[in-house]
């Protein structure tokens, strides 16, 4: 399995703040991690930092540049310029940073005049993204007064915040979260070796493949165990998306820990209406929607208000694509939708494949791809978007018919 880009990106930021070379095994080869690594390596040589469509890099680099001496323009793709950054900028300004919006208020590009930050107390609205909080926390051990951060608004994606805290502590930072308040002492990072876990978000597409099968035995290597199957002394995963192992039991997918692998098998299941809350695991939304559509399972989805801030508006994107196989994804409110499955799934031949749009979103594409098992041949407009998080997706899945050959 590919390495977690979430862990990789946090490890790179910690090493950069600590001023030491990252001693990191299994660093992600995803495009997101490459973009962040290059930004950190060359930011002191360049006045313009282009983070393309990498949301993590946008949030993490905003704080990093704001508390280092220099002047920069931080920019990205057109879609990145539509993704929010204002809550983070507001806090940085209150802590003494000098940041200006170049085009639209609340969005990239940013003109950043970096300087030393003392830290102190602050409150942050995390309704739109937990990455705003992670960005500040990662920097805080290096600030003279540390940071006491109160998290306000709807508290989403908590596992990602806890991942940040756990990794900071691994590198000797002193961090504590009590409910909605996180306290970081001014204790600098120290070098330490770290091994990045395999990526549970990527594993979700293999779980989907298992769910769509009649029978299977799939061995996934390198994943830290989810709590539902963990056997001591196996390490538990830092990633919230490991909950996919639990959720997929509703589709008949069982997970067994054997030696150094997690083995997925399929058994029968009861075809009842399902309910999923994506408040803490928004990246699993496309996977679950596609699985329900492929198995013709009705479902209710909550905790989806923030999906509009991802690489695409994922609710709209999945609604448009599953409609092509007769599945309805109906919006009940900003935070809730229901899936009404097709009575009969269509089937597409190689000469006339089903055309899916990527919406420039890696997770939308990877979630839709396994539906080939149920509806036949598929064609994507931009299959290369998977490089953002899972560069070897097509090769490992065995989807080669429409994939451009390497030179």
Question: Can you characterise this structure?
Answer:
It contains 13 helices and 19 strands. The chain has 407 residues and is an alpha/beta fold. The chain has two domains: 5-195, Enolpyruvate transferase domain (UDP-n-acetylglucosamine1-carboxyvinyl-transferase, Chain, Alpha-beta prism); 200-397, UDP-n-acetylglucosamine1-carboxyvinyl-transferase, Chain (Alpha-beta prism), CATH 3.65.10. A four-stranded mixed sheet has the order 2-3-5-4, covered by helices on one side. Helix 3 (55-66) runs parallel beside helix 5. The radius of gyration is 21 Å and the shape is globular.
List the helices and strands and how they pair.
Blueprint: H1 5-18, E1 24-25, H2 31-42, E2 48-50, H3 55-66, E3 70-75, H4 86-94, E4 98-101, E5 110-114, E6 120-125, H5 131-139, E7 147-152, H6 158-170, E8 175-178, E9 181-184, E10 194-195, H7 200-212, E11 217-221, H8 244-247, E12 253-258, E13 261-266, E14 274-277, H9 285-295, E15 299-302, H10 314-322, E16 328-333, E17 336-340, E18 354-356, H11 362-368, H12 372-375, E19 378-380, H13 393-397
Parallel strand pairs: 1-10, 2-3, 6-7, 14-15, 18-19
Antiparallel strand pairs: 3-5, 4-5, 7-9, 8-9, 11-13, 12-13, 15-17, 16-17
């Amino acid at each position: 399995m590919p390495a977690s880009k979430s862990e990789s990106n946090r490890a790179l930021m910690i090493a950069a703040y600590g001023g030491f070379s990252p001693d990191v095994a299994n660093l992600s080869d995803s495009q997101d991690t490459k973009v962040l690594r290059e930004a950190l390596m060359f930011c002191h040589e360049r006045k313009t930092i282009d983070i393309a469509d990498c949301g993590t890099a946008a949030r993490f680099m905003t704080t990093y540049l704001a508390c280092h001496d220099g002047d920069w323009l931080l920019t990205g793709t057109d879609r990145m310029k539509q993704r929010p950054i204002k809550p983070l900028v507001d806090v940085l300004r209150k802590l003494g940073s000098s940041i200006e919006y170049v085009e639209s208020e609340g969005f990239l590009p940013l003109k950043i005049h970096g300087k030393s930050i003392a830290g102190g107390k602050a409150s942050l609205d995390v309704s739109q993204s937990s990455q705003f909080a992670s960005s500040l926390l990662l920097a805080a051990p290096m600030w003279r007064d540390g940071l006491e951060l109160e998290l306000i608004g709807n508290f989403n994606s908590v596992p990602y915040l806890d991942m940040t805290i756990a990794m900071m502590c691994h590198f000797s930072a002193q961090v504590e979260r009590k409910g909605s308040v996180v306290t970081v002492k001014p204790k600098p990072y120290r070098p330490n070796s770290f091994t990045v876990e395999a990526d549970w978000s990527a594993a979700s597409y293999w779980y989907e493949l298992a769910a769509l099968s009649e029978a299977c035995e799939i061995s996934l290597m390198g994943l830290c165990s989810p709590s539902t199957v963990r056997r001591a002394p196996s390490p538990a995963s830092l990633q919230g998306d490991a909950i996919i192992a639990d959720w997929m039991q509703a589709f008949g997918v069982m997970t067994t820990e054997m030696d150094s692998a997690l083995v997925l098998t399929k058994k029968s299941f009861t075809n009842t209406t399902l309910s999923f809350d994506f408040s803490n695991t928004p990246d699993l939304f496309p996977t679950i929607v596609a699985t329900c559509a492929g198995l013709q399972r009705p479902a209710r989805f909550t905790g989806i208000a923030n999906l509009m801030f991802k690489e695409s508006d994922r609710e709209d994107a999945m609604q448009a694509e599953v409609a092509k196989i007769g599945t309805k994804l109906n919006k009940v409110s900003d935070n809730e939708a229901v899936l009404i499955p097709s009575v009969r799934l269509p089937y597409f031949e190689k000469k006339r494949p089903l055309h899916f749009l990527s919406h420039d979103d890696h997770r939308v594409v990877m979630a839709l791809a396994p539906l080939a098992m149920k509806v036949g041949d598929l064609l994507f407009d931009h299959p290369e978007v998977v490089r953002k998080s899972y560069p070897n997706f097509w090769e490992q899945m065995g989807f080669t018919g429409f994939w451009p050959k390497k030179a």
